[in-house]
Structures are given as structure tokens and as C-alpha cells.
Amino acid sequence: MPQGRPQWRPQLTVEEQRVGWVFFGLYLFVFPFLVGLVTRFLDEHLELGFTAAQSSAVYYAAMLLLLAAVFWNFLKNAFRILRDNTRRNVFALAAGAVSGLAATVLISLIPLPVENPVIGDYRAQFFLSPGYTTAVVMFLRPMAEEILYRGLLFGSLRKKNRAVAYAVSVGLYAVMAVWQFAVPDGGALYLLLALRYIPLAAAATWAYDVGGSVLTPMALRVILNGLFLVFALIA
């Protein structure tokens, strides 16, 4: 087992944080609506006929390119940290995967008054576009989310208050994963589905806190999201 956790050091430059917070706001409140408008426009006027998975793949690929430009130094530093602390990050990945999976299974046993629409969505998208769906669920979306929720959000708050950093990073991710089912007419009960995403977010946040490289929660999300996709297909 790795030795004691090293002192947390800010990994983002001041400029990365400033630009990152602006980008995060756009990612949460502007880009999702903008991509819907653009997709409808292209379908109506150019008749491209994108599937939902193909549209998501284009969207998240574009997000990753923009994030790589904004957080280039941060991502290079993540590779260095992973290289210099390989054992610690492997431990964080393994422990996070086991605990995250176990906690997800346990919390799924709690009965909720609503079903998770994501399961049906993933199944339908996979049968139409299996490659694009797999790319989005396992790679493109997790990589983008971990840069923002763990790298920017948790990383910025962690140096000030660790408990607050955990609460905000985990809580905001869980809520943002389900808010679209409650708004505008799905009903507030769909927000209860956020409980199902807390274990995944907590495991990813802990893995980043322990390992120090944002690449570790990215790898963790690949594992857990892949298992979730398999479950959605066989459920």
C-alpha cells in the first residue's frame, strides 16, 4: 500500500482557472442547448440524419479538443504525476473501482419512485450506433467530465477545504447527471436518481485526491461506465 498522502498542491495555473471557470459555465448552461439547436438545424436543412450517439460523439470530441487547449499544461502535468507516482495511482484506481462498483450495487437496491431513463437510452443508442455509443459512454464524456469536475472543480476547492471540495464535486456531478429528466416536465422526483451517481462520483473524486493525477479518475470512469453500459444492454 502507498505511503502517506503527499501534501495537496494546486495543479492549475491562475490563467487555467480563470478560463476554466468560464468554460465550465458554458459547458453546464449553454453548450447543451446550443448543440441541440445546431443538430436540429443540420438535420432540417442538410438532412444529415445524425443518430443521438453520433451527435453526442461529435459534441464531446469538440469539447475535449477545447478542453485540451484550455488545460494543456494541466494535462501534461497529469502525465508527469502519473509517471512519478505510478504505484499510488494504480492503488487509487483499483481501490476506487472496487469500492465504486460495490457502492453502486448497494445503492441501486434502494427503491426509487422513478426508473432511470439512461438505461433505455443507452440500449437504444447502442443498437443504432454501437461504436459511437461506446466511444461516448466509455471515453469521450468521462474524459471531458473528469477534467472539469475533478481537475477544475475539486482541484480548485481542495486547497481551501477538502470536505467542501468533495461535497461540491460529487453533489454537482450527481445532480447534473439527472437534471435533464426533471426539467422541464419530467417531474422533481427524477432528481432522486442523483443518488445512483453519488458512488461513481465519490470514487472518482477519491481516486484523484489520492493519486493526484486526473488520468486516474478518467481510467476509473472507463471501467465503471463500461460496466454500466454492459448492464444497460443486458438489463
Q: Which helices and strands, and how do they pair?
A:
Layout (H helix, E strand, L loop, with lengths): L13 H16 L1 H15 L6 H19 L1 H13 L1 H23 L8 H12 L1 H29 L3 H15 L2 H4 L15 H14 L3 H20 L1
Structure description:
The protein has helices at residues 14-29, 31-45, 52-70, 72-84, 86-108, 117-128, 130-158, 162-176, 179-182, 198-211, 215-234. By secondary structure, the protein is mostly helical.
Overview features:
mainly alpha, 77% helix, 235 residues, 11 helices
Shape: globular
Average pLDDT across residues? Answer: 91
Task: Describe the largest sheet.
Answer: none
Strand content: under 5%
List low-confidence stretches: none
Count every beta strand, where a strand is a DSSP E run of 2 or more residues. Answer: 0
In helices, the fraction of residues equals over 70%
Q: Please, how many domains?
A: 1
Structural class: mainly alpha
Number of helices: 11
Q: Specify Rg, calculated over alpha carbons.
A: 18 Å
